[in-house]
Every structure is written in structure tokens, then in C-alpha cells.
Design a protein that fits this description.
Number of strands: 0
Helix content: 40-55%
Number of helices: 1
Distance between the termini: 44 Å
Strand content: under 5%
């Protein structure tokens, strides 16, 4: 009977897992920021109405450093 061995490269797994977590955190934070902007302006992104008083014009780059 032959035995099968699976070798795992721990560093590759850690790197891939770290990137997966980073992407997940990025998506969650962007969703929260978009939801907050929707609430503050009472309109969704790119929505145009006559009653709308505020705009969502512009953006700026944020630097968030995290282990994730």
C-alpha cells in the first residue's frame, strides 16, 4: 500500500491568508463608509433628486495601517 504525503508551505499559506483577511477588512470598511455617506446625504451614490441638498463629490485617500 502506498502512502500519500501532502506538503504544505506554511509561509505561502500565511501570506495568502493574510491577503484574504486584508481584502475582507477592506471590503467591510468601504461598505461601512458608503453606508454612512448614504445616511448623511439621504441619497445613494450617483443618485440625483431635486430635494437633495448635499453632494457626495470628491474623495481622498485614507491610510489605515493594520495587521489585517
Amino acid at each position: 500500500m502506498s502512502e500519500q504525503f501532502v506538503q504544505l508551505n506554511e509561509q505561502v499559506i500565511k501570506t495568502e491568508l493574510k491577503e484574504l483577511v486584508r481584502q475582507g477588512v477592506q471590503e467591510v470598511l468601504n461598505s461601512l463608509l458608503d453606508a454612512e455617506a448614504d445616511q448623511l446625504t439621504n441619497a445613494r451614490k450617483y443618485e440625483r433628486t431635486k430635494a437633495r441638498q448635499v453632494t457626495r463629490a470628491g474623495h481622498y485617500t485614507r491610510k489605515l495601517l493594520t495587521g489585517a
